[in-house]
Amino acid sequence: MPNATSRMAANWSGKWALVTGASAGIGVALAEELASGGTKLVLTARRKDRLEELARKLTAAHKVYAEVLPADLADSNAPEKIFAFTREKGIEIELLINNAGFGQYGEFHAIEKQRLLDMVQVNCHSVVHLTRLYLPEMIARRRGDILMLASTASFQAVPYISTYAATKAFDLLFAEGLAEEMKPYGIRVCALCPGSTESEFHVVSGQEKFRRRTETAKKVAHTGLQALAAGKSYVISGLGNYLGAHGERLIPRRFVTKIAAGMFKPRTQ
Prior knowledge:
alpha/beta, seven-stranded parallel β-sheet, 10 helices, 7 strands
């Protein structure tokens, strides 16, 4: 008998989903949950070996199709490359998951310029680009779904990860606005806002020492897909994260930023 996870994922059974950033963390968890419900997958990320390993695993376990396309979304041409790949194969993407993203911890002026620009490219530009490429086909079919990875950092400024928090605020507001726009067309859009999650994010961003109260990637992925299926425009994963994100609205913004600065300020030796 199918469990609750596979029943929920069956919303997209037999349909094609595109998952960016599918080689690790929440991206893998999203692919695994969708595959368990019979969703066919296009998996894209930078690391071809990891994508191929995941595709083999999902195909063997769930008997689903899984196409692999290595692509680096820091390259402004990557969204067009991904779109051309699916068109050439005659794949209709019914579920677009803009999961790829990264952060960087440290004082803004000390972070490499290209690293910051690549962050904006991956976290914002590619999200808009891919969404604009796939949305017209969804509108024409009068069906489709889009899940965007935002963050609990979307709800306030966070010194020392200032650029990352700003990009995630963009993702949240973009998703919420688009969700309302797309209602007349029967298309659901949702922003998933996780807090600290078991993934490579903290290592890549240089924030390992700030990791606390982590949720599993599996739990976060399920929360996002469940909210999307329910027609929510955003969801915060975890009760503590929800209370924290909304509780700070009761405090003046400058104090919230000051508290965050105290938590994240680099400690000198």
